[in-house]
């Protein structure tokens, strides 16, 4: 394979989202043969099973982007100790209609940043549960619960000095995970 396309799904629509910045910055730690594309989920309709036989164009786009990828990267906020509704909505859309789950078999990594000290750990645990059901092999270690605080990013938007070594090690494991499942 000449290169790896990664579909990055950010679980926050906030303009200045830490998680969007994290998804952008962590992608820069990837090797040259990895390309990260942040998928659009903010324009999806609310999931309604009645629409399964006539999915919206935005849903078809999401599913096509997932199918074109060799790996998934979830970078999520934590809302009320779980995954934000916008992320669950996107996951549900791409999992349907029954038997046409676009996520299945795609190797995934999970990251998250929050202003709270536990750094999205509960949202990530809930997300892992969902991904297990959807037959998504998800990197188990290292876990990455990122505390969004000053210095997380430098002025150029790269991962700041304090977290760079840890997140580079995370990325190295993630790359190996994707390659293992693509082989
Ligand atoms: C509805 C809502 C619920 C939240 N619940 C949690 C929570 O359970 N745990 C947590 O650490 N932070 C929580 N937060 C704070 C988020 O960590 C914070 O808003 C963070 O900036 C969200 O990520 P983002 O910057 O990518 O949007 C919550 C924020 C909102 C708006």
What this model shows, in words?
This protein has 183 residues and is α/β, with parallel strands linked by helices. It has five helices and five strands. The protein has helices at 18-27, 57-67, 85-94, 121-133, 161-182, and strands at 4-11, 34-38, 71-76, 108-114, 145-147. The chain has a five-stranded parallel beta sheet, sandwiched between helices. The model has no long low-confidence stretch (mean pLDDT 97). It binds flavin mononucleotide. Flavin mononucleotide (FMN) binds at residues 12, 14, 17-19, 77-81, 114-116.
Described by strand count, sense and barrel closure, the largest sheet is: 5 strands, parallel
Give the percentage of residues in beta strands: 15-25%
Separation, N- and C-terminal Cα atoms: 9 Å
Task: Give the helix proportion (percent range).
Answer: 25-40%
Report the mean per-residue pLDDT as an integer.
97
> What oligomeric state do the depicted chains represent?
single chain
Question: Which key phrases capture this entry?
Answer:
globular; alpha/beta; binds flavin mononucleotide; five-stranded parallel sheet; 183 residues
What's this model, at a glance?
The protein is α/β, with parallel strands linked by helices and 183 residues long.
């Amino acid at each position: 394979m000449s290169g790896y396309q990664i579909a990055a799904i950010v679980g926050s629509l906030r303009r200045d989202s830490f998680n969007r910045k994290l998804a952008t910055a962590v992608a820069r730690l990837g090797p040259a043969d990895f390309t990260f594309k942040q998928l659009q989920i903010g324009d999806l309709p609310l999931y309604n099973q009645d629409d399964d036989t006539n999915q919206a164009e935005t849903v078809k786009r999401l599913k096509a982007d997932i199918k074109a990828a060799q790996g998934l990267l979830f970078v999520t906020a934590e809302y009320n100790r779980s995954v934000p509704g916008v992320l669950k909505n996107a996951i549900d859309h791409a999992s349907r209609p029954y038997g046409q789950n676009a996520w299945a078999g795609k190797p995934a990594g999970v990251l998250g940043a929050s202003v709270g000290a536990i750094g999205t750990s509960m949202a990530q645990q809930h997300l892992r549960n969902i991904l297990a059901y959807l037959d998504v092999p998800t990197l188990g270690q290292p876990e990455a619960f990122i505390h969004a605080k000053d210095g997380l990013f430098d002025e150029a938007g790269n991962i700041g000095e304090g977290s760079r070594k840890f997140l580079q090690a995370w990325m190295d494991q993630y790359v190996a995970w994707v390659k293992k499942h693509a082989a």
